[in-house]
Amino acid sequence: MSNVPPNGEWSERVGRLQEKLASAGMAGCLVTQNVGIYYFSGSMQAGYVFVPAVGEPTFYVRRSLVRALEESKIRTTELLSFRAFGEQLRADYPQSFPAAEAGERPLVGSDLDVMPAQLYLKLGEVVPGARIVDASTLLRTVRSVKSAYEIGRISEAAEVVAAALEEGLAALKSGMTELELMAIIELGTRRRGHIGLMRMRGYNQEIMTGIVSAGEAAAEPSYFDGPAGGRGLSPTSPKSVSRRPIGRDEPILLDLGCCIDGYVIDQTRTAVIGQLSPELEAAYRVSEAIIRQTERSLRPGATPEQLYVQALDAAAEAGLAGNFMGFGKDQVKFLGHGIGLEIDEWPVLARGFRDPLEPGMTLAVEPKFTFPGQGVVGIENTYLVTENGFRTLTKSPERLLAL
Amino acid sequence: MSNVPPNGEWSERVGRLQEKLASAGMAGCLVTQNVGIYYFSGSMQAGYVFVPAVGEPTFYVRRSLVRALEESKIRTTELLSFRAFGEQLRADYPQSFPAAEAGERPLVGSDLDVMPAQLYLKLGEVVPGARIVDASTLLRTVRSVKSAYEIGRISEAAEVVAAALEEGLAALKSGMTELELMAIIELGTRRRGHIGLMRMRGYNQEIMTGIVSAGEAAAEPSYFDGPAGGRGLSPTSPKSVSRRPIGRDEPILLDLGCCIDGYVIDQTRTAVIGQLSPELEAAYRVSEAIIRQTERSLRPGATPEQLYVQALDAAAEAGLAGNFMGFGKDQVKFLGHGIGLEIDEWPVLARGFRDPLEPGMTLAVEPKFTFPGQGVVGIENTYLVTENGFRTLTKSPERLLAL
Predict the structure, then answer these.
(1) Is residue A1 predicted with pLDDT exceeding 60?
(2) A145-402 is a CATH 3.40.50.720 domain
(3) Closest chain B residue to A46 measured between Cα atoms?
(4) How far B385 CA sits from the closest chain A CA (Å)?
(5) Do A195 and B220 touch (CB under 8 A)?
(6) With a CB-CB cutoff of 8 Å, which residues 362-401 of chain B face chain A?
(7) Ranges for the Creatinase N-terminal domain (chains A, B) (predicted)?
């Protein structure tokens, strides 16, 4: 699979957004976030992309125009100044941005889930003739279905993280700290082109290469919007690795990913030096059973909510409802998530997500069980929804890694 | 210097914000960003910190309450639900959040430069009795003056990056790619406790460990809000390292930092395998002269604007105005920046920053020159402003590293 996007990639993306804009009665969409700007233009330089409901989109570039002109696949022009941006939009798209006196005020969508409030308020001043409304649902829905090019990039990220995990496992020994093990795995992903972080849309959420955490440290709860947090290095980095040495006979959570050419993979394996207690081993087997059950249902037409609810039922039947996807107040209410340019894409395998799965969606499914004082066990694969079922994108062998 | 904050650290921080709130006529400040939440509470769990103009602050925690209760230095309580958050605030702080019918609508500041617009709009609905206004200027001003504890953390980060740079230089050889060199330096910072990224406040800005870039690749412009960008790995990571091999006789820009216990350091050294052309070597000497000139002025009372303007003058006198801090349209309009929990703190050494420097401010000063097709040369140190002058926090020896 080539890592150069084919002709048509960008017009296809723009076209799918335009269909949704028309259905939603929006005159267009102003995209302000770097990831969205790249998705619709092919360039991640600083500026704004405007996609009208009908017609050609434009990338207004603040910096670097030189570079955006090389990279962008859509009409690209200089953003003259923020103050003049309203006039520039009005000249280029008079139907979306009429003069304030016109009085009709068309709806213009934007990525209000990520755009800072300060920018939102300033935009309202420069385009008084339009009403800026939240289009994040539309944007996330458009991005939830991946092209062949995008699936290729996620697959490449899967190869990279699998190779780095092998290097980490080869070096793993009792007494090594979580941080030391993670540093080896990160070296492996970085050398192969990991950009250094996995982009995450959620406010205040951060993830670089995932979580390596063992024993009771892995079971420590955290702000992080995932089933496991980890102790972390300090209150200023309160998740993932700590300086705790990894011991024998405790579960080692290896929840790892990387970002290659902008696209993210996410996978989890559980390892142990020695052997797990019967209770934890049994819970690991339940996570395997849940991921197999999920695979059997994973096809177009199934709903994310159904996948989540049947996993909850399976955990409850195994007597592990209280340990599933975190513990106590710190349980998260999902089984998995869409993945692509960001790690927290749509759909979420959670209640409320009732639109059926479609071919081209990519999902990380991560049944995990938390035992305070003991650790976290579980498994996570990234899948592609196909016409008839699914394809596993994760490349690492799937087993309890007893060393 | 202990890495445990002393008693009084948090009440001092809260007190300084309260003074500013009172002067600004604000009833309080709602802090929503993870870095700000940590700054005022000692914990970075998910939730909101409210600091009233008078009285005790509260940390309302969404997740993990268990962990926030262990870490937080201020009153900490569960955030019951976002819908009920308005009532919770009204009950705890009736003067800041009166019922909507009361009609007075006190001003409540918030971090609108980072808070997503969607959250801003929802907050407006749950606290109809208050007017949420931008307090980012206040928050950034309070944070610009560091405590002894904070200076200790930045100094520790300086030790870590200096050690990692030594490891990178020991491994550097002609033909190695920028990415390979960076991976070695990152391994060095990570093993010593770098959290993996340097937090940056600016929207759409990202920096993990800095920039390693050589020759013409370093001179490629980028969206990044700094004097040098670098080619990067792809249009989805369009700055810092590329897979270009590092050659002989070209400038190697080593603009590096790390984040230890939440605090960031930032420094730049220029290296060369062989020797620089006379033109680039002369420009490097001008960057040294500008940093010496800046040091002579670096004391309480000097203004950031003065430091910037005199650097501009020095660059112009050397005939390098067009190469200073980037090239052409891609020049940035500053000489340096505050640094602490974030890499882009206040004050910025730029026009418009006319409030005099104060003891306790920490500043990265980074005179650099860009030569398209040839590379970037320059130097950067992080300084503490003291009662009588400055102290250099950067630990790496300062010279043109000819290898």
Answers:
(1) no
(2) no
(3) B223
(4) 25
(5) no
(6) none
(7) 13-145
In this complex, which of A33, A116, A203 lies closest to B113 when CB atoms are compared? A116
Q: Which residues of B touch A44 (CB under 8 A)?
A: 223, 235-238
Give A-chain residues touching B34 at CB under 8 angstroms. Answer: 204, 206, 223
- Judge whether A213 and A228 are in contact, CB under 8 Å: yes
pLDDT band at B6 (very low <50, low <70, confident <90, very high): confident
Which residue type is seen at A230? G
The pLDDT value recorded for residue B2 is: 59
Using one digit for the tens of pLDDT, what is the confidence trace for A134-149? 999 999 999 999 999 9
Higher pLDDT, B123 or A99: B123
Q: Which residue has the tokens 């009665």?
A: A25
Are residues A243 and B330, on separate chains, in Cβ contact within 8 Å?
Answer: no
pLDDT digits (tens, 9 = 90+) for B211-267: 999 999 999 999 999 999 999 999 999 999 999 999 999 999 999 999 999 999 999
**Residue A308 pLDDT exceeds 60:** yes
* Contact state of B238 with A43 under an 8 Å Cβ cutoff: yes
CB pairs under 8 A between A and B: 211
CATH superfamily of the domain spanning A9-143 = Creatinase/prolidase N-terminal domain (3.40.350.10)
Q: Which element (helix H / strand E) includes B108?
A: strand B107-110
pLDDT-derived band of residue B1, with 50, 70 and 90 as boundaries?
A: very low
From the list A182, A206, A223, the residue facing B63 with the nearest CB is A223
Q: Is the pLDDT of residue A35 over 90?
A: yes
Structure tokens at A325: 């996807």
Per-residue pLDDT tens digits for B43-79: 999 999 999 999 999 999 999 999 999 999 999 999 9
What ipTM does the predicted assembly reach? 0.97
d(CA A356, CA B91): 43
Question: pLDDT per residue over A207-244, tens digit each?
Answer: 999 999 999 999 999 999 999 999 999 999 999 999 99
Q: Smallest CA–CA separation between B187 and chain A, in Å?
A: 6
CB-CB neighbours of B295 under 10 Å? 16
Tokens of A55: 């017609």
A9-143 and A145-402 agree in CATH topology = no
A119 touches chain B (CB under 8 A): yes
Give the pLDDT confidence score for residue B148 in this predicted structure.
Answer: 97
Across the interface, do B116 and A117 touch by the CB < 8 Å criterion?
yes
Residue in B closest to A188 by C-alpha: B183
Domain ranges of chain B: 9-143, 145-402
- What share of chain A in percent tops pLDDT 90? 96
Chain A from 55 to 74: CB within 8 A of any B CB: 62-67, 71
